[in-house]
Design brief:
Helix 8 packs parallel to helix 10. The protein is mainly α.
Amino acid sequence: MPEPEIAEDVSFRQLDKAARERLRGLTKDNAERVGEHLVMAGRLLDVDPERAYEHAQAAVRRGGRIDVVREAAGIAAYRTGRFAEALRELRTVRRLNGSSEHLPIMADAERGLGRPERAIALAATPEADTLDALGQVELALVVSGARSDLGEHDAALSVLDRIPPQQGDLALRVVQARAAALEAAGRAAEAEDLLAGLDPEDLERAAGNAEPEEDVVVYDVYEELDEPGTDDLEARGVEDGEPLESSAEDPGLDDGGSGAVAGVPADDAEARDELAAAHETGPGPDALAQTDAQTGSLPKPASDDHVQAASDEDGVR
């Protein structure tokens, strides 16, 4: 498959320094090419998500075992509505680096697949407690939408009541989520009153629907990559472009299996463990930790009231 074209003004040096460090296990030339695809993915994510996805896939073909590469692929898949693929990629990221920072995106992908109960279950897992303040708010927004999907309108509003006061665009997104929950509950007049007086342009921007501004590229100190490096996987004979795992559909997304938890196949231990933990704690709004949140935004949701998923600093900036 031919690689998508790299713009002439794109440079590996435009990639976040931390992300460049993660690519040191690749040969210098390959690392630079992967980095350029990641820069392109980040640049196009808001204006042309499909092309951003193509660049992320090109990066995966060249450096599929690197966490920031799979992270970019997962976010681009999410933004293009490939929710099953997004779940698979972000699970891989979690296995590679142990971070659960993308749990809100994963939960929203479950909702996008028509499985709101799994989104709620993810919010009840121990990993949810490890999220920072912003992640807690993002996950709460997803859970509120999932509760509305299930017709549990009072619970949806209760989740939003637990969110601490916010500022800026994040505060507007909480208001939008409340309006969506009220409308889903058949309380359209209350929803309209809630949004009355707010600037429509501000609401569009907060929802991620405004036209993106022209990119501003910030260069930082660049250190040359070492000629060709190796990491633990390379030492075991894994080549630069070899993906970490098969691109076959994630078995955890098949509802037809018979595992220890209803609806999860026995051969998907990770998905089974996630839902098992949720059943033990009793998924619901009470499972969400309440913390002081910071302002911020994530990429566009699967629908207007979904969480906006992060264009990750390391992978696609």
